[in-house]
């Protein structure tokens, strides 16, 4: 690792070049203040459509709009300067055709200043990935457990437990890599499959419920810091309990207000201290 301060963001070609090298560190971020705190510690910040669940309280990622992704992508961009910045294409903004996907991806690139976009899907999205990449938009793939397909999949169960599913997901990963994706997320698949995909494809794999053998790892920041408690996937490791700290701070404030301990002299205007 160089100790010289770099100018500009980590680029998508630099991420691609990390295949088989030092693990790529990724986290989601949805806001400028969080991005500021994560920027120097990660290689890549992902503005995930998980923001619909984490910030907006939706049951799943399907109600997330392109306008939401643009607003949060632009906020994360303003709060960071070093990390490669990838923004999720939300459900309904890209599945219909390569041309529709290009329009949505171009808005994300132009209106957020992100480094690239991410979309979910395998062989059925390969032509779309190629269409965007050939026209200058770096694309990160996302295979395995693809949350935008929760209704078709019937839930968030890990995938690849039977041989047909394993073959399908491997074919999906190969198709996305062949289409020109600079990297791909592998979510919620049995460990040996995530490892096998990582060995097979020439671009970096970023695991979430994948394998330590993946070329990088990603987690949802709010899961990591204990700020989301809707559900806790097996793949989450909690590194802090910020949610508990927020509740304790609110309780202490409430007690101070009720006891007239707050505001104190130092918080007041026009009172000698
Ligand atoms: N906060 C948050 N973190 C995420 O990782 C995340 C989101 N939101 N929203 C979009 C998707 C949904 N994801 C999920 C949600 C639930 C499980 C889960 O509870 N899995 C169970 C198994 C469920 C079953 O077997 O039926 C597990 O034990 O991991 C996994 C991934 C991942 N993504
Ligand atoms: C967890 C990552 C891969 C994601 O797609 C999201 O946060 O939406
Ligand atoms: Mg996502």
Automatic annotation (TrEMBL):
Keywords, ordered alphabetically: Cytoplasm, Magnesium, Metal-binding, Methyltransferase, Pantothenate biosynthesis, Transferase
Entry's localization field: Cytoplasm
Enzyme class at the top of the EC tree: transferase
GO biological process: methylation; pantothenate biosynthetic process
Positions bound to Mg(2+): 49, 88, 120
Free-text remark on how the cofactor is bound: Binds 1 Mg(2+) ion per subunit.
Binding-site list for 3-methyl-2-oxobutanoate: 49-50, 88, 118
GO terms of molecular function: 3-methyl-2-oxobutanoate hydroxymethyltransferase activity; magnesium ion binding; methyltransferase activity
Biological role stated in the UniProt entry: Catalyzes the reversible reaction in which hydroxymethyl group from 5,10-methylenetetrahydrofolate is transferred onto alpha-ketoisovalerate to form ketopantoate.
HAMAP family associated with the record: PanB
Family label: Belongs to the PanB family.
Entry-linked NCBIfam families: panB, PRK00311.1
Protein name: 3-methyl-2-oxobutanoate hydroxymethyltransferase
Gene: panB
């Amino acid at each position: 690792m160089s100790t010289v301060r770099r100018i500009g963001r980590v680029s998508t070609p630099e991420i691609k070049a990390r295949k088989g090298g030092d693990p790529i560190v990724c986290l989601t971020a949805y806001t400028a203040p969080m991005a500021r705190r994560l920027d120097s510690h990660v290689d890549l910040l992902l503005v995930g459509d998980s923001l619909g669940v984490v910030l907006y309280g939706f049951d799943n990622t399907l109600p997330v709009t392109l306008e939401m992704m643009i607003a949060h992508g632009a906020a994360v961009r303003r709060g960071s300067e070093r990390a490669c910045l990838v923004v999720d294409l939300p459900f309904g903004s890209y599945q219909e055709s390569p041309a529709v996907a290009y329009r949505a991806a171009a808005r994300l690139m132009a209106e957020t200043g992100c480094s690239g976009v991410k979309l979910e899907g395998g062989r059925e999205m390969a032509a779309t990935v190629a269409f965007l990449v050939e026209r200058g938009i770096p694309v990160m793939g996302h295979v395995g457990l693809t949350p935008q397909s929760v209704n078709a999949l019937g839930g968030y169960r890990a995938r690849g437990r039977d041989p047909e599913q394993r073959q399908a997901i491997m074919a999906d990963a190969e198709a996305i890599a062949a289409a020109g994706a600079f990297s791909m997320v592998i979510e919620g698949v049995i460990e040996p499959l995530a490892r096998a995909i990582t060995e097979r494809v020439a671009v970096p794999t970023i695991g979430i419920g994948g394998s330590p053998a993946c070329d990088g790892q990603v987690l949802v920041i709010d899961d990591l810091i204990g700020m989301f408690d809707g559900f806790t996937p097996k793949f989450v490791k909690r590194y802090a309990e910020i949610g508990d700290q927020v509740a304790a701070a609110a309780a202490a404030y409430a007690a101070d207000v009720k006891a007239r301990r707050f505001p104190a002299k130092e918080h007041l205007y026009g009172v000698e201290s």
